[in-house]
Design brief:
It is built from 9 helices and 14 strands. The protein is α+β, with helices and mostly antiparallel strands. Strands 2, 3, 4, 5, 6, 7, 9, 10, 11, 12, 13 and 14 form a 12-stranded mixed β-sheet that branches. Strands 1-8 form a two-stranded parallel ribbon. Strand 9 and strand 10 form a beta hairpin. The chain is globular. The two termini are 35 Å apart. Pfam families: Carb_anhydrase (PF00194).
Length: 323
């Protein structure tokens, strides 16, 4: 089979894309209890990567190549509205019995157990949060180590996503904070006051306890399609951090197929942190799962521009060959 034939075969056999970043919403309902964890049929490199997402399932994925408000983007001042956290209401339930943590092939995802986000007269329910490595959005031109996406849905089916950058904590602060955080996590629900007093403050360079807790078991779902129960998860640490910062708001899209637009993005100016050891554990499971930055919202899709450039180059080469 020639290379072109292989590409066409892979494209045709990919079929409907499963396990996108909208998993758990009306765009991609979650599997029923007892059913297998779905595994993504798209990827981030080669013929299943972002350059070919539209062809994997056309016309369902056409927005990936033609949409004019695609995500992620470079978060520079001209493309977003800076919103104070006071303009949003964020509440997320703790998970004292832990949460299901799944490997979808395209990312690893925590299934949440309740939470609300309200702004502009709209209310959204938290469905899940997942991770990208490296960050998908750029922070004024700079990539971050990772990015967490909290995916919310309204009763009307509207989607909102809170993005939070994740940096790598370094030095003695990282190792000391991780040890303290992991040693106390089993007592967080019995002695919440003590935990709040002793846990490191996210955003100060110390690892975020929530992330350390989640990634402590990430190696148990190294195979796509597997899941594990996390230790107890206290969400207040991250929620308080988000409330302490601001949000960069813009209207964009899902960052995975079908690349649906109309997504309400709120990218936090507060950043989470993860220890070097936990980052390596997460990296070894997640691998690379970051879509390349898209064009400025409202501008032509970067793939359309590339296609026009390629066509012009082909014409130029053909013309030169005819001379």
């Amino acid at each position: 089979m020639g290379k072109l034939s292989q590409i066409l075969f892979l494209t045709a056999s990919a079929g409907r894309v499963f396990a996108s970043c909208a998993y758990g919403t009306h765009l991609m309902p979650r599997a029923e209890e007892g059913e297998a964890v779905p595994v993504a049929t798209f990827g981030y490199t080669g013929v299943t990567g972002p350059l070919n997402w539209a062809a994997l399932d056309s016309p369902a994925n056409n927005a990936c190549a033609t949409g004019t408000r695609q995500s992620p983007i470079d978060m520079v001042g001209s493309v977003f509205e800076l919103v104070d956290a006071s303009a949003l209401s964020i509440e997320v339930n703790d998970m004292p019995d832990g949460a299901d943590f799944e490997n979808l092939g395209s990312t690893v995802e925590v299934i949440t157990q309740g939470g609300t986000l309200s702004f502009d007269g709209k209310t959204f329910e938290l469905q899940q949060f997942h991770f990208h490595l490296p960050s998908e959005h750029l922070d004024n031109g700079t990539s971050q180590a990772m990015e967490m996406h909290m995916v919310w849905q309204s009763a009307e089916g509207e989607i909102a996503v809170i993005g939070a950058y994740i940096n790598i904590a370094t030095g003695e602060v990282a190792s000391a904070s991780v040890k303290r955080g992991l040693n106390t996590r089993s007592r967080l629900f019995q002695r919440q006051a003590e935990a709040n007093e002793t846990a490191p403050v996210a955003g100060t360079g110390a690892p975020t306890v929530l992330l350390e807790t989640i990634f402590s078991v990430v190696d148990q779902i190294s195979t796509p399609g597997t899941k594990v129960k996390t230790p107890p998860l206290v969400m207040s640490e991250v929620v308080d951090l988000l409330k302490a910062g601001q949000f960069q708001a813009y209207s964009g899209s899902l960052t995975t197929p079908p690349c649906s637009e109309g997504v309400n993005w709120r990218v936090s100016t507060s950043k989470l942190s993860v220890s070097p050891a936990s980052f390596i554990k997460a990296r070894d499971v997640i691998g690379f799962n970051s879509r390349f930055p898209q064009n400025t919202p409202g501008q032509p899709n970067i793939l359309m521009i590339s296609a026009l450039g390629s066509a012009a180059a082909a014409v130029s080469v053909a013309g030169a060959g005819a001379v």
